[in-house]
Automatic annotation (TrEMBL):
Pfam families: AAR2, AAR2_1st
Name of the molecule in the record: Protein AAR2 homolog
Source species, domain of life: Eukaryota
Family as reported in the entry's similarity comment: Belongs to the AAR2 family.
InterPro entries xrefs: AAR2, AAR2_C, AAR2_C_sf, Aar2_N, AAR2_N_sf
Cellular component terms (Gene Ontology): spliceosomal complex
Alphabetical UniProt keywords: mRNA processing, mRNA splicing, Spliceosome
Region listing for Disordered, in residue ranges: 165-226
Amino acid sequence: MALANITEETIEMDQELAKKLFVEGACFVVLDVPLGTEFGIDLKSWETAERFKGVKMIPPGLHFIYYSGTNRHGDVTPRAGFMHIFKKSEILVRRWDSEKEEISDKELPEETVSRIKSDIRNLDPCLGVYPYDMYGRWLKLNSYISEELLSRLVPLSGQIRSALEYTASPSTPTAERKRRSRPSTAEEKEDDLLPQLSATPGTELRLTPYPSQSYPEGASPQEITRHSLDPTFTLDSLLASYTMPSELMGELQFCFICFLTGYCLEALDQWKRLVRLLCTCQAAVCRRPQLYSQFLDVLELHLSEIPEDFLVDIVASVNLVYASLRELFRTMQTDSEVDGRLRSKAERFQQRLTDKFEWDFEDLDRDEDDEAPVIVEL
């Protein structure tokens, strides 16, 4: 579908709302985008038509703009994009960088921006209408992402990429290799000749670091074992990194959006890690009913958006979400200190998952092979 051919009739909104968005909605103007470029905003994407110059009637708030260009060889480039919090009636102007094959984040000359803003009425036929039919879903997906949290999580470059950029540095024998008394093997020598790759500074997501220690300083062997079975200490340490507990939900949402629409595997890894942590805590479920009520809402929405083949792969192969939820529901079911309203909410969620995905949550007291607890041996 060519974006420039979208009209108001394709958007599910009444006349009053359309008039309001026409006045108060933001505009994203992007110049020189090549024909046939994949362009998306929030949960919808299209191939650009010849006259395409952006999107109009964007509701104020957070939005994710992303794209995939085509290089000189005709290959589609990895998806990239940026998040922006649009103000009421804002006009954001960017230009396509043909050399880098991406939307440039460089400031355009003030004269150019002023001319475009004053001529915005004439540009109107070249601006696609924001796809309002999915706006309600989009609002729910980013409900906990504040401007402050967003500024902490996005890369310093501002660009969110599906494929990380790497910088090679000359390879040198590692310190461990230097300490060895024996000569290096042929394989080790070959490894030393390879360049050391690391993410190009400023391009990686600035996700909250996972706590490196899962138990308090000076913990006894018994306490270490207890904390390995119930990672509430790890969750508490992670929550200390935020200004409020709900920001953890914001980061969970941020990671999911970056994966769902930005195809960012780095974000998916963090999403999995956070889901697993929240599901395997026991004491935290009793102590933080509000956080877990929020988590159930966020996770249910995420599971409704994940592509079917991705869900099938999780159930049949990795079992991450299913196995983790078995542990969470087991805690909800067996711990008498769990808030009653939270337990009821979890039971309803559990039933909806069974109805939709045919996930079996019977015999929750039985440990699955891939979710058996790990015991610390000292």
